[in-house]
Amino acid sequence: MKRQSPFHLFVNCRFAKAAWGAASWTRVGQSAHNFMEWLEIVFRTLKSEDLEKFVFRCWGLWNERNPRVWNWAHMERLQVMEKTRNFVKGWPKVQRPELFSCKRVLRLITGGSDR
Length: 115
Description:
Radius of gyration: 18 Å
Oligomer: single chain
Shape: globular
Structural class: mainly alpha
């Protein structure tokens, strides 16, 4: 199997280009020649709310890559972006300690009451 570089995975491959095409700010960093240069440009240029989206999109691309490479399974670009969007929407919920405290999770796992 040919080794993929992070630059190819996140920037140069057709799938990544199509996935990034959905966001208006994704042209940022197109002049980069390697992965680190690309990251530096992106982190210097994007606003904080766009940086969060950027990180989640990278996660979405990475999360899709593994089944593609190891299991010959794949989703379409729009499916990956929808999965990523749903993850982003759900992320704040799992960050609320009152909803997902260790004690609460332990009670749920062991069959204890959640009330």
